[in-house]
């Protein structure tokens, strides 16, 4: 299959590339497409062969839509195999995390809603209490999934999901990996303040790049 041809337009390409590099802390222009990351990607078979090197290429070429809307961004498990293999130490996991945030800022529909719900529930719990309380976190995660399915009247999927997660939760509890205790960390106000400050800074940066 012939790859699509992308027109390189510096006026639009460079700002997008620069934003991704600054937010991810990765030097994407150092990638010379050796494909070592692709060879070791643990989710390559699950992303339609959209591998880390191709993701970097789409950003370098300024293909914003493809960069923000692909399976790798949502299915990357942050194993960092790509970064270990990369001769220039490019950590694609940090790039996918950055692109995920940028997609959410655009209010784009996630290709993997459950992944988005997982991230939202995790962040909300950690900001509220200064740490993640597993039962609350999983409860909100399942609630978000249920509401998503309820919008399309898919109640059977809700029941199946709850049954599956209940079995998983019980197995984790037996292994000591799920806790019913509730804990709070000190400095919760500082955590919330830092989060709000980061959001304001990012909003100001997005307005400047618009």
Layout of helices and strands:
Blueprint: H1 10-24, H2 36-40, H3 52-60, H4 64-68, H5 71-75, H6 81-85, H7 92-105, H8 113-129, H9 134-150, H10 155-174, H11 188-209
Helix pairs in contact: 1-7, 8-9, 9-10
Output the keywords.
single chain, 210 residues, mainly alpha, 0% strand
Protein architecture, described:
By secondary structure, the protein is an all-alpha fold. It has two domains: 10-104, no CATH class; 113-205, no CATH class. It has eleven helices and no strands. The protein has helices spanning 10-24, 36-40, 52-60, 64-68, 71-75, 81-85, 92-105, 113-129, 134-150, 155-174, 188-209. It is globular. The two termini are 35 Å apart. The model has no long low-confidence stretch (mean pLDDT 87).
Q: Would you tell me the structural class of the helices and strands?
A: mainly alpha
The geometry reads as globular
Number of β-strand runs: 0
Total helical segments:
11
The portion of residues forming beta strands comes to: under 5%
What is the end-to-end distance?
A: 35 Å
Q: Could you say how many structural domains there are in total?
A: 2
**SSE topology string:** HHHHHHHHHHH
Rg (CA only): 19 Å
- Mean residue pLDDT: 87
Gist?
By secondary structure, this protein is an all-alpha fold.
